[in-house]
Amino acid sequence: MLVLQVFCSLIGWFCLYLLFCYTFAQRGAEWSCRLVTLSHGVIIVLLTGYVKPPDEVFTSNPPLRPAGTENTELQSVSLAVCLGYFFFDMCWCVCFHTEGPLMLAHHAGSIVGILLALLMGVSGCETCGAIFGSEITNPLLQTRWFLRQLGLYDSLLGDAVDLLFIVLFATVRVEWVTSPRPTLIMKLGGVAMYALAWVFMVDIARFCCKKSRAKYKKWQENSKLKEAQK
């Protein structure tokens, strides 16, 4: 049943990609793939948010299943939907050579982690929590890319998207809490994903510094121009 669910998810994401390719043929393959990624981000955040991760992962209201317990049907379906997407996106990235080793390692780690949770039948709760935390910023990341393509990135909307992305990434994706229940292999996988998150955080910090300097320089130039016009 799990194999069928993952396969159906993979085919579903691929069909959605083909639909976007047909609808936005003039935009290119990456435009369609990012639309699929945006769709997955919204859907999986809603699914895993509804599952409600345990208090050890994120703050939420009871009743909750503790970390390391048997997967519920909804958790398994959510993981299968996400796994099918990661298979699709991993294949697309390899075929089109659009991502570097770090992002491919992130995809591979996500695939292994979800596979372990599905095959062992436990730790679905905290795995869904990790997916929620890692995917909640994804729609913003894709929105940022689309704004660039449409020439709307250098605007107040672009600044708002960047700010919200940075805040969510720093407060949700990089958060880490331990629990004694999950198995050692799941804990090790969590540590690996946590380490990758910090690598991404360093890149984001560099981006913030670079953009802040650019904004400050532009502000200085505008100020000098206004003074010269007086």
Q: How would you classify the helix and strand content by structural class?
A: mainly alpha
Number of strands: 0
Q: What is the approximate shape?
A: globular
- The helix/strand series, from N terminus to C terminus, equals HHHHHHHH
Query: Which strand-content bin applies to the residues?
Result: under 5%
Largest sheet: none
Number of helices: 8
Contiguous low-pLDDT stretches (5 residues minimum) are 53-64
Give the tally of structural domains: 1
What's the N-to-C terminus distance? 74 Å
* Rg, Cα atoms, Å: 20 Å
Question: Mean pLDDT, as a whole number?
Answer: 79
Query: What is the share of helical residues?
Result: over 70%
Task: Describe the model.
It is found in: Membrane. This is TLC domain-containing protein. Keywords: Membrane, Transmembrane, Transmembrane helix. By secondary structure, the chain is mainly alpha-helical. The chain has one domain (1-229). The protein has eight helices and no strands. The protein has helices at 2-23, 29-51, 73-96, 101-120, 124-135, 138-149, 156-173, 184-229. The longest helix has 46 residues, at 184-229. The chain is globular and about 70 Å long. The N and C termini lie far apart (74 Å). Residues 53-64 have low confidence and may be disordered.
